[in-house]
Each structure stands twice: as structure tokens, then as C-alpha cells.
Recover the amino acids of this structure.
């Protein structure tokens, strides 16, 4: 069953190469960090939710809204194949009901803040701006892109960033929730200029303060599409199974 249906539009992706050790304590049981060309990434992602339905229903005033999240990439081996997914450090939205539902039912790390966005269309480029307010200060991510999208190439860094179709949530040392996200392959827009003005420590904590002085390894904008989020399932992880047999 679908927990959520929506459109994800204009995904601004700022990708940072980091030391995998920083993420170890955030890795859900039963998964491991997913690398691309032996590089470990976290991504700062800003995008729009459009036409949102939760359990098939549109919630008034919660249909179109912004989200900004910080995430990293994991994989899980199951039934002879690797499932590739993401883990969220934090997800910021402007709607308290979304935060309540996500944190209560999925035990995600959502946070409600004032947010705004803007799209500026120019003759030769488009500019996308996402902002959120934290402790009376506005944080901003902004990028200017070419007008026309291009295909995301097979085996590219952009493919690695966008082609993760599961979400994993660390509940405790033994318990992990898994949910599937379905969407078609996306197109991307090449970025001409970008700006990041964020207080990383206040927004994401001491573990990610170092990103304040780190330049992204790559930046691009994904066009997005309709998406479906399936209901979560609780994983029986190896650690939990070993405990059960002792």
C-alpha cells in the first residue's frame, strides 16, 4: 500500500565527499554505507512537494510545500541482491502536521521551520532558491541552471545520487525501518552558479559543522517526477537475530 503519493520537483542537490567514520553512528542495523568510486557522500537536498496525498487523502494546507534534508547513502543485501537507499540526518518542512506524521509513524527526524522558495526565470537560465529560518536567521541554498534538462548518464555520480530507491531509519541498535520510494529515472539540469549560506552547526549539529567550510564535490538540479512512498516494514537484522538465538 502507498503511504504517500506526491510530485517531487526541482531537487537541488549539493553533494559533499566526507569521511565515512563521521556517519558510522547513524548507519541503521542491517545496512552499510554505500560508496561511489570509493567516495562517501552526504547530500544537502532542497525540493518541492506538490499534490501531496497521505494514505490517498489531500490534507488541507499540506498539499504543496518545501523540504530541505541532509542525507547519506547506504545499501542492504537481501535475497541475493543489493538494495540501495538513503538515511536522513534531518528533514526540514514548514508544516507541523507533516512533521508529526513522519516522526510518529516513521520515526524520522523531521523538524518544522518557516520556509520559502522562489524560481526566477531568465532568458538563458533559471534560478532556484530554497530558504528556511533557524533561530531568527534565514539559511539559503541557491543555484542557477541551464534551461534545458539532459539525461543522467549511466554509472555517473548523478546516477549514484538519484538512483537510491529505499529509505532506512535507525530506530535503535537492533531495529531498522525500511520503506520503498518509487519514481522513474530523472533528468538533470547543469548548474552554472550556486550559493550556500547555512549555519550547519545550528541546523545539523556538531557532527556536521565541518561542512561550513567545505565546498560541494558536485551540484546539480534534478527535474523530479511523480513519486510513491510505500508503507514501512520492520527489518529483522542480523544483530537482532543473533541475540534471539543466544
Amino acid at each position: 500500500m502507498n503511504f504517500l503519493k506526491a510530485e517531487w520537483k526541482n531537487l537541488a542537490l549539493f553533494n559533499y565527499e566526507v569521511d565515512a567514520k563521521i556517519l558510522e553512528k547513524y548507519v541503521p542495523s542491517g545496512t552499510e554505507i554505500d560508496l561511489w568510486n570509493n567516495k562517501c557522500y552526504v547530500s544537502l537536498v532542497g525540493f518541492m512537494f506538490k499534490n501531496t496525498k497521505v494514505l490517498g487523502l489531500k490534507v488541507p494546507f499540506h498539499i504543496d510545500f518545501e523540504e530541505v534534508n541532509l542525507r547519506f547513502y547506504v545499501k542492504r543485501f537481501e535475497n541475493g541482491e543489493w538494495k540501495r537507499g538513503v538515511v536522513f540526518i534531518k528533514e526540514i518542512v514548514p508544516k507541523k502536521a507533516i512533521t508529526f506524521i513522519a516522526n510518529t509513524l516513521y520515526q524520522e527526524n523531521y523538524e518544522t521551520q518557516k520556509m520559502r522558495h522562489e524560481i526566477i526565470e531568465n532568458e538563458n537560465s533559471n534560478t532556484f532558491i530554497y530558504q528556511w529560518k533557524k533561530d531568527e536567521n534565514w539559511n539559503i541554498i541557491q543555484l542557477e541552471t541551464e534551461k534545458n534538462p539532459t539525461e543522467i548518464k549511466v554509472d555517473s555520480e548523478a546516477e549514484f545520487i538519484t538512483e537510491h530507491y529505499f529509505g532506512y531509519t535507525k530506530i535503535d541498535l537492533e531495529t531498522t525501518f525500511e520503506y520503498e520510494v518509487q519514481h522513474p529515472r530523472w533528468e538533470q539540469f547543469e548548474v552554472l552558479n550556486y550559493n550556500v549560506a547555512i549555519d550547519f552547526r545550528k541546523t545539523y549539529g556538531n557532527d556536521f559543522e565541518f561542512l561550513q567550510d567545505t565546498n560541494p564535490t558536485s551540484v546539480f538540479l534534478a527535474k523530479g517526477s511523480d513519486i510513491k512512498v510505500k508503507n514501512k516494514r520492520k527489518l529483522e537484522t542480523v544483530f537482532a537475530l543473533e541475540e534471539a538465538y543466544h
In short: The CA atoms of residues 44 and 70 lie 5 Å apart. The helical segments are 96-106, 157-162, 200-204, 238-244. The mean pLDDT is 92. Residues 96-106 form the longest helix (11 residues).
